[in-house]
Amino acid sequence: MSIEEMEETEDQKERGRSRRQKEEEPFSWKKEIISWIQIIIAAVVIALVLNNFIIANSRVPTGSMENTIMSKSRVIGSRLSYINSDPERGDVIIFKFPDNRELYYVKRVIGLPGETVNIIDGKVYINDSDTPLDEPYLPEPMEGSYGPYTVPEGCYFMMGDNRNNSLDARFWKNQFVPKKDIMAKVLFCYYPRIGKVE
């Protein structure tokens, strides 16, 4: 028998012994419980990291964003969207409500920092433009005139898509949302139906 064959035989014997030892190990409830606890702890840590640093989950209780987001829908937003960029007009975002920072609202960005927003006969005008904003997401024409609102630097002016039934910045005591209070950009709705939010 050659040296190579002898080494191969020894390897096979060793693997056989190792397999028998594993088969002979008695079941241990203690090891099983510890294993499950480790899995649960890992899952909790992953969920906390996701929820606090990567995604934001929010419920929209009213019809203020219809037909983009229907009443009682749940949405997911990305907390990473504005780390290296600023919100853009038209973004649907989750933010802390300026009149009660314990509450989270979901609305659309209309006015950017330094802009003047004027609403005349249901049309939105930015910086005295003669052309109103193109807002294809509105379910019906807006009624009334509001403003003008001059947006401070570092802040945003928010409105709901269902303008005639939306308690938005037109009616708040503190009408502008600081960037630091913007939590996430809404990406999609997952309840009661799944769909991308634009």
UniProtKB/TrEMBL annotation:
It is an enzyme of class 3 (hydrolase). Its main location: membrane. The chain crosses the membrane at residues 33-55. SUPFAM superfamilies: LexA/Signal peptidase (SSF51306). It is found in: Cell membrane; Membrane. It catalyses: Cleavage of hydrophobic, N-terminal signal or leader sequences from secreted and periplasmic proteins. InterPro entries: LexA/Signal_pep-like_sf, Pept_S26A_signal_pept_1, Pept_S26A_signal_pept_1_Lys-AS, Peptidase_S26. Its EC number is 3.4.21.89. It is a single-pass type II membrane protein. Residues 34-191 form the Peptidase S26 domain. Residues 1-11 have a biased composition (Acidic residues). The keyword Membrane applies. CDD domains: S26_SPase_I. It comes from the Bacteria. Residues 1-22 are annotated as: Disordered. One of its GO terms (molecular function) is signal peptidase activity. Keywords: Hydrolase, Membrane, Protease, Transmembrane, Transmembrane helix. Belongs to the peptidase S26 family. This is Signal peptidase I. It comes from Enterocloster hominis (ex Hitch et al. 2024). The gene is lepB.
